[in-house]
Write a structure and sequence with these properties.
about 475 residues; alpha/beta; GMP Synthetase, Chain A, domain 3; 3 domains; 5-stranded antiparallel β-sheet; about 20% strand
């Protein structure tokens, strides 16, 4: 590698260290033109473009022709949720084939506008941004992802890729506002969402809704649904979503609003998408239909196996790790799945995440966490129980919701940490958990839990850059608290 592109001064300073430590890297290009430096190895984006204009066309054509489809395009490191991150080697042909199959499934034109706010170290956002550029789409890059809700009405994107956490946080915000409304306004909202649900069911089957329902939907749009769509800028026609499991109820809610959330399944090792919804028919309880020219089958323990031109080259400098997951050109995903009656893919669990209690029962943490996560008072939850007598959990409550509850019951507290330690709040969460887990087997029940006042984040190493929990890190960090529950 001879050139490195960075965004700001902080990244530039890290890049200078790399310059000093390597022989192959010759220059660093900084996109921020306001940065001043005397280092001749550092170029601003504007200066680099001027320099590029001086390069002879024959030289550029020669370089272009030397690049082969099977050349290495990038090394993307996995998030490392269950172990050490591994460098996934992807070629130009992996990306080009991914673009071609997306052309067959999605309708994207140069008239579209996409907002990029997920980290480009994430295969989903990286591949999506490459795809947008290949289709001539205007791709707006947002430096601070926390500002996404604020800039959506300004950018007014027509398409953008998101992770389930985005919808979880957005719905939490809607629910908090809902609690402040008078009963009449809440009733209008509930009726509009219920109408949107009914209309969405017809749309998912590519069926025409009855005339009376069409009228009701038109009224619901004017009263509530269009306003909710306005949160996302008002022009969204498709939002690909992947990266983690999503609760079907959450997916159905946003479809009821009128957003086509195109949920799918994929991995870094598969150049992202393996399956996603078709635009005309889709099952909201699945991960969508297998992508064209991609093969999927189930192996031992119903493990999802994938084969096709999107499969990666292997892990960088890790031949043993590569051999564990690549067998006869089939990629062993480590995910448990099944096929729906119509052939759509359903991802059930991470096989490595399943734990076994000391009583010999296998428990799916994802199943429990998705179930509990639908409660508006629970923001984050990590379940524990491997080789333990019963299941326990670390829970981060939705602070705004429990603060509102504390105000309603006249509960005095000095800090968020104090609030989550009060018997009244713990009793509130216990009752809500007991109600939810009446739907699952007794050995899956959360017997004890501890409340945390600070959420798991990227900054405190509780989440990866792709907003997945680092289970091992979290469990080690709170080991004393966990052991105390046993």
């Amino acid at each position: 590698m001879q050139l490195m592109f960075v965004g700001d001064k902080e990244q530039m300073e890290k890049a200078i260290w790399v310059l000093d430590q390597t022989k192959s890297l010759s220059h660093v290009i900084v996109f921020d033109d306001d940065i001043q430096t005397q280092d001749q190895r550092i170029l601003t984006w504007t200066a680099f473009k001027k320099l590029a204009q001086k390069v002879e066309n024959d030289k550029l054509i020669k370089i272009f022709n030397e690049v082969q489809p099977d050349d290495l395009a990038t090394i993307i490191y996995t998030s490392g949720t269950t172990g050490e991150p591994k460098g996934v080697m992807l070629g130009h042909d992996n990306f080009m084939f991914a673009f071609s199959i997306h052309d067959k499934r999605l309708y994207v034109t140069e008239k579209d506008i996409s907002l990029c706010f997920l980290p480009l170290s994430h295969i989903f956002e990286r591949t999506w941004s490459f795809y947008m550029l290949s289709r001539g789409v205007v791709n707006v890059f947002l430096e601070n992802p926390r500002e996404v809700i604020d800039v959506l009405p300004i950018i007014k994107p027509t398409v953008m890729c998101v992770v389930p956490r985005f919808f979880e946080k957005t719905k939490e915000g809607i629910e908090l506002e809902y609690e402040k409304w008078p009963k009449v306004k809440q009733s209008i909202f509930d009726w509009s969402i219920a109408t949107g649900h009914k209309y969405s069911e017809y749309k998912s089957r590519s069926a025409k809704a009855p005339f009376l329902l069409q009228i009701k939907k038109s009224i619901a749009d004017k009263l509530v649904l269009k306003k909710l769509q306005g949160i996302f800028g008002g022009n969204i026609r498709m939002m690909p979503c992947s990266g983690a499991a999503i609760r079907p109820e959450l997916l159905k809610f946003f479809h009821a609003i009128g957003l086509f959330v195109n949920y799918g399944y994929g991995a870094t090792e598969t150049t992202a998408t393996v399956s996603c919804f078709k635009s005309d028919t889709y099952d909201l309880n699945s991960c969508g239909t297998i992508m064209p020219d991609v093969e999927v089958k189930l192996g031992d323990e119903d493990e999802i196996l994938i084969k096709g031109p999107t499969i990666f080259r292997g892990y960088y400098n890790k031949p043993e790790e590569t051999s564990k997951v690549l067998e006869d050109e089939w990629y062993k995903s480590g995910d448990e799945g099944q096929f729906a009656k119509d052939g759509d893919l359903i991802m059930k669990d991470r096989i490595k995440d399943l734990f076994k209690t000391s009583g010999g029962k296998y428990v799916s943490p994802q199943k429990i966490e998705l179930l509990m996560g639908q409660d508006p008072y629970i923001e984050q939850i990590i379940t524990v129980g491997d080789n333990k007598k019963y299941v326990t959990a670390l829970i981060v409550p939705t602070m705004a919701s429990i603060q509102l509850h504390a105000k309603e019951i006249g509960l005095k507290y000095t800090s968020d940490k104090h609030l989550v330690s009060t018997p009244e709040i713990k009793d509130l969460l216990q009752k809500r958990i007991d109600h939810l887990q009446s739907e699952i087997a007794s050995y899956e029940h959360i017997i004890k839990f501890e409340l945390l006042h600070e959420p798991f984040t990227i900054e405190n190493n509780g989440m990866t850059s792709t907003l997945k929990f680092r289970r091992k890190v979290i469990i080690n960090q709170y080991l004393d608290l966990i052991e105390g529950m046993y």
